[in-house]
Amino acid sequence: MDMWKYFGITHTDHTVMNPMSLAKTRELIDLLHLPDGARVLDVGCGKAEFLCLVAERYKVTGMGLDLSAITFKEARKNVAARELTDRIELLNMDGGKYEPDQEESLDMASCIGASWVYQGHQRTLKALSKMVKPGGLVLVGEPFWKIAPDPEYLRLTEQEADAYEPHPNNVQIGVDLGLTFLYSVVSSDDDWDRYEGLQWQAAERYATAHPDDPDVEVLLRTMRKNRDAYLRWGRDCLGWAMYLFRKP
């Protein structure tokens, strides 16, 4: 089954496509203090909800990049419905291949839950920091280990133990790169339960509505495997946070 199709189906009901509540996301946006006319970039923008919220809060222009044609279509609808097409540009592309017209030209660059674009947390921070002006903001969303993961959890979810770091390490990685750490917000169990639970419901609903889709068997098998891994281990061992840094 195509990865983007699976992701699109399971995230049908998500507004923000990560384990963070909309309320916490808005609170974080209030702390950005972006100046009028600021230029912002969101790599792996999903449905562009974060960009829309930023543009509704501040007088900024933004660009969103996403590789999935499915979520890109939803992003375009979202931006149009919010009447933000004059301030938000969307590109359906691999964010890792994007280069701004000039280095150090953005007021904020973000990559929220898509560090795979740059092959990891550290490389994501490096890539984004090159794009922002001195004094500009770098915002990332990244998983972290709350406790050491069970080997069976790693096997079922096809992950490696070194894929993520503990929460303090995610901060220190940015500090070691010369960034100034400003703030972080951490997902709660409720945030995670909603993020995961919406995927289960969406997959089951899709399977019922599309019984002749040849991908339904793989969809349900994959979703239920991930669901069981979350309920047994993931809820206790895997965290998620958004980290805000400033470039000196």
UniProtKB/TrEMBL annotation:
<protein>
    <submittedName>
        <fullName>Demethylrebeccamycin-D-glucose O-methyltransferase</fullName>
        <ecNumber>2.1.1.164</ecNumber>
    </submittedName>
</protein>
<dbReference type="GO" id="GO:0032259">
    <property type="term" value="P:methylation"/>
</dbReference>
<dbReference type="InterPro" id="IPR029063">
    <property type="entry name" value="SAM-dependent_MTases_sf"/>
</dbReference>
<keyword id="KW-0489">Methyltransferase</keyword>
<dbReference type="Pfam" id="PF13649">
    <property type="entry name" value="Methyltransf_25"/>
</dbReference>
<feature type="domain" description="Methyltransferase">
    <location>
        <begin position="40"/>
        <end position="136"/>
    </location>
</feature>
<dbReference type="InterPro" id="IPR041698">
    <property type="entry name" value="Methyltransf_25"/>
</dbReference>
<dbReference type="GO" id="GO:0102082">
    <property type="term" value="F:demethylrebeccamycin--D-glucose O-methyltransferase activity"/>
</dbReference>
<keyword id="KW-0808">Transferase</keyword>
<dbReference type="InterPro" id="IPR050723">
    <property type="entry name" value="CFA/CMAS"/>
</dbReference>
